[in-house]
């Protein structure tokens, strides 16, 4: 019988204003609160230093990007070192002139950058014009080794793709983490909104089940208007949650309020679950060639 290996995790669900300083202050306050509750790993939401600017296409928004390492990683790294926590932040990365990424940064508890992940799946939908801003990532689906375990960090639209979660698990990830910015079109009726949110929760719980590892999801919350005025804006639905390796919900946040969510995860349960449900053992890797095609005509 394995001894429980309990890791307290924290998620900082926040609403964002136009002020980068105010947003970072709120993020750091949330990190401090999570650490005070015992969290050793803290996840921030997608693009937490500002509003979700991808609702419209505006070249001036590229001015919001920053290098990595840069100002935010320096400030957050100092907080990680002070509080002795591993921190996952989500930033708009300026890699070079005209080359930008949606990038998650993992900061080790001594403040140094343990690794980065550049978002691989880039959406282009009404209100989510990310292809205008972000070059698809080139880091691949590799886990990042930290003092709290190997982390499989993916970003928002990545969370709908079982291939990404599987590859992270195959790369040794012990936890999947998804910083997220997803919400409703305020014009959708209540039934459609409920269907969308249920699908979002279900697909990520399925990643936990299919790979036998915990999943952490941190989403934005609150209404953000479309700067162009062409749409009704985005109502981010919060609902950040932690799921265990059988998809069980360990903790969840409300849909309408900034929240610091903490939960305890037993990392050794993955071994027990995978022995009972040995999906990795029974995969037919000799028969999956079709997955490398766009479509089987």
Care to describe what's here?
The protein is built from six helices and 17 strands. The protein has helices at residues 20-36, 71-83, 162-170, 190-211, 269-276, 279-282; strands spanning 6-13, 41-44, 86-96, 99-107, 113-118, 124-125, 128-129, 144-146, 149-153, 175-180, 183-184, 215-219, 221-224, 234-237, 241-243, 249-252, 259-266. It is globular. The termini are far apart.
Count of folded domains: 1
Summed over residues and divided by their number, the pLDDT gives a mean of 97
Low-pLDDT stretches: none
CATH classification, class level:
Alpha Beta
Compute the separation of the termini in Å: 49 Å
Give the number of DSSP strands.
17
State the helical fraction.
Answer: 10-25%
What's the overall geometry?
A: globular
CATH level-two architecture = 4-Layer Sandwich
Q: What value does the Rg take, in angstroms? A: 18 Å
Q: Which structural category do the helix and sheet elements fall into?
A: alpha+beta
Count the DSSP helices.
Answer: 6
Lateral arrangement of strands in the main beta sheet: 5-4-3-2-1-17
Can you say what the CATH homologous superfamily is? Carbon-nitrogen hydrolase
Strand content: 25-35%
Order of helices and strands: EHEHEEEEEEEHEEHEEEEEEHH
Q: Could you give a quick summary of the protein structure above?
A:
The chain has 297 residues and is α+β, with helices and mostly antiparallel strands. Helix content is 25%, strand content 29%.
Q: Which properties best describe this structure?
A:
single chain, 297 residues, Nitrilase/N-carbamoyl-D-aminoacid amidohydrolase, 25% helix, globular
């Amino acid at each position: 019988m394995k001894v429980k290996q309990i890791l307290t995790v924290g998620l900082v669900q926040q609403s964002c204003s136009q002020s980068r300083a105010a947003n970072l202050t709120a993020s750091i306050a949330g990190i401090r609160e999570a650490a005070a509750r015992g969290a050793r790993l803290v996840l921030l939401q997608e693009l937490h230093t500002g509003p979700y600017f991808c609702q419209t296409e505006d070249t001036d928004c590229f001015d919001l990007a920053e290098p990595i390492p840069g100002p935010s990683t320096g400030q957050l790294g100092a907080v990680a070192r002070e509080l002795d926590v591993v921190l996952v932040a989500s930033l708009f990365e300026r890699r070079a002139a005209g080359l930008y990424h949606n990038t998650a940064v993992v900061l080790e508890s001594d403040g140094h950058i343990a690794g980065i992940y550049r978002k691989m799946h880039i959406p282009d939908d009404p209100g989510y014009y990310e292809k205008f801003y972000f070059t698809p990532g080139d880091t691949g689906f590799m886990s990042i080794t930290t003092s709290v375990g190997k982390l499989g960090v993916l970003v928002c639209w990545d969370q709908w793709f079982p291939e990404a979660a599987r590859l992270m698990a195959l790369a040794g990830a012990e936890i999947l983490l998804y910083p997220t910015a997803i919400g409703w079109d305020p014009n959708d009726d209540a039934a459609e909104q409920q269907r969308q949110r249920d699908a979002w929760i279900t697909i990520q719980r399925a990643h936990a089940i299919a790979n036998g590892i915990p999943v952490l999801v941190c989403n934005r919350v609150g209404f953000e208007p479309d700067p162009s005025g062409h749409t009704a804006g985005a109502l981010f639905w919060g609902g950040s949650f932690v799921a265990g390796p059988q998809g069980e919900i360990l903790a969840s946040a409300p849909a309408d309020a900034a929240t610091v969510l903490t939960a305890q995860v037993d990392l050794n349960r993955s071994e027990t679950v995978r022995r009972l449900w040995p999906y990795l053992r029974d995969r037919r890797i000799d028969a999956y060639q079709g997955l490398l095609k766009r479509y089987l005509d």
